[in-house]
Amino acid sequence: MTNRVATPGPSAGAVATTTAPTDVPVPGAAVVSSWAESSPASYTDAELASRIAEIERAIRQARMEQLKLIAEADRRRVFAAQSARSTQAWLQSLLRIDSREAKARVQVATDVTPAPEEQGESPSAALPAAAQTLSEGTMGIEHATIIARCIRNLPESARHRASEVEALLAENARRMCPRDLAKLAERIKYALDREGALREEHAQHEARELHYATARDGMLVIKARLDRETGAKFVEALRPLAAPRPETDGEKDSRTVGQRNADGFAAMVDLVLDSDQMPRTGGQRPHLTVTIDFDDLKQRLTNTPGTLTATEQSITAENVRRIACDCEVLPMVLGGDSLPLDVGTTQRTAPTHIRAALLQRDGVCAFPGCDRPPGTPQAHHIKHWIDGGPTEINNMVMLCPHHHRRIHDQHWSITMQRGRPMFTPPSSVDTSRKPKPGGKALPAAYQDTLRGLIPTPRTPEGTP
After folding, report:
1. pLDDT of residue 41
2. How far apart are CA 353 and CA 325, in angstroms?
């Protein structure tokens, strides 16, 4: 271990690197030394946990010793001799840490280290309780930073309670992680500075913003800063929709957190658009409008795209076919100048009574293994209505948005057996292409399997 100290005398400010004397105890040295003498593989589980905790405590104690040295270096203005503009900049270069970390260490060092003795007075730290807890190794610098920030932000009306607040936070830092301690500090702020908290919430509301724009690759980019109330509503709505899907055949949900959040947001939009409470524009509920030549759509001409009216972006005919599985189609005859000449009536491919029957038969999603689907269920035509498939129960199946997309993208085939949907995977998913019963077909399959185990009811005596 090496120490960097300022040498006295005419050359004050020069920094020398020396080896720590062997007779000076170094915090944590004994713990680290004893750990190094044995192989971790030789420890029991309990010993491993104990050693990890011991070393963390030793590191924190050593950090407190470092904070004392930083405070002394700051008082001596060692940074000036090194041509640095501040102790923070000097420490950042010396320890190769980022500026934020350097600033935190200098601030904490100043707060937990006693100031130089005044005549007739004992030295005292600005945060004595935090200093004591740091010296014990029961909390780290992140905890101390939170405590210092809370004390600095106390209103004038609560300054007389600073010692009480600091002691409370230091005590809780012994058993809380920094995140939880920060929540406690915020609660203290709300309790002691209600007017300040209210001003902060008002400022956050005024600073709210949400922007969206279409990137060059056609994806929509959203940037938002929401006040805490709106943010909590957003998280509450998104969280259940972005939860990982249950394991299927032992495989966990492969989506990243970002992809799950994006899928959850898409499901939330579906729910909003399907709500009758949304404001109407021109007498119509909010809806997704796609324009495409009907013959191109019917003939699967993927080189002829459709247009998303809201963003004026192109979309492939294959995805339009997926969207059109459960939507309203408005036939419209256009003239040579692309202006409407005649407008027909809408056709709903899954009327209310059919959707009710499908939900009763399939549940929210009939795909095998989907037991927690987010979003609004979509009625899928087994034989697409564009290809002449009828809009009737035996030609339709309920799917969640995720599995609806998989059916189209991976080209699963669906057949009806005894009034229940059977899903046959493509060879890319299952080389044997073994059909799987879907949705509420599973209970029926279980009933057939268990039929031989259920005893036949006995006929009551005296009954012919």
Report:
1. 84
2. 16
